[in-house]
Amino acid sequence: MGKLTVNSKQVIVGFTLVEMAVVLVIVGLLLGGLLVPLSAQLDIRDYNETRQKISTIKEAIIGFTLANGRLPCPADPTVASGTLGAGIEKFDAAGTSCSSFVGVIPWASLGVPETDAWGRRFTYEVAGSFSDAIILNTVSPPASCVSVPLNSSFSLCSEGTINISDAATLIAIKIPAVIVSHGKNGFGAYNSDGSQISDSSASVLEKENSDVDTDFVSIAATTNSYDDLVDWVSQNVIFNRMVSAIKLP
Hints:
Largest sheet: 4 strands, antiparallel
Mean pLDDT: 90
Radius of gyration: 27 Å
Order of helices and strands: EEHEHEHEEEHEEH
Strand order of the largest sheet: 3-4-7-9
Number of strands: 9
Oligomer: single chain
Shape: elongated
Number of domains: 1
């Protein structure tokens, strides 16, 4: 401290430049230490928000299934928001089956959020026998499933086609539908303008969630090489709701 002598007494009158520099260094260190936790808190907020949106989407899918006797088809991921067909489930030309079993959540058809907390669309895949028209009577796989219900496109013996692993072991098999947020890095996700973020920089595990097949990876903890959020609609939950609604068997 700078000091001034008055009547043989020292009075503190201010900081020296050296003391000010020390104070500034300490303040800088404290602020720097706070930046990482703040960033982590924002990430936690975004992941929790996205998980909540996925939960809402799952409930909407089940509600749609109860009302229509089938799961919704994906929407075309390349259609930009605000244009014709955006967020609408897409059928084939005959209007009886999905034009593609992989796309994005049909947010407009379901009345759910279009994007995750990072502004990217949710990838969505559905099994064909769970999403086609009831009149097609296609309830298999498996081939032994021949019971054809009147109010559902699938039967209690129907099986989904999607498998989920934790990268080491299978954690869910024969799933009818899966929902994916491609996380903070967004590799493989579609934007609201219909463009897709390249997955060329994605890890092997993340590429499994954007390679348009029936195998997906779900890992609880996010890492530098994996930050996707994956959830699915279990056939047992669907069967339970459909039986309760007298849509099955």
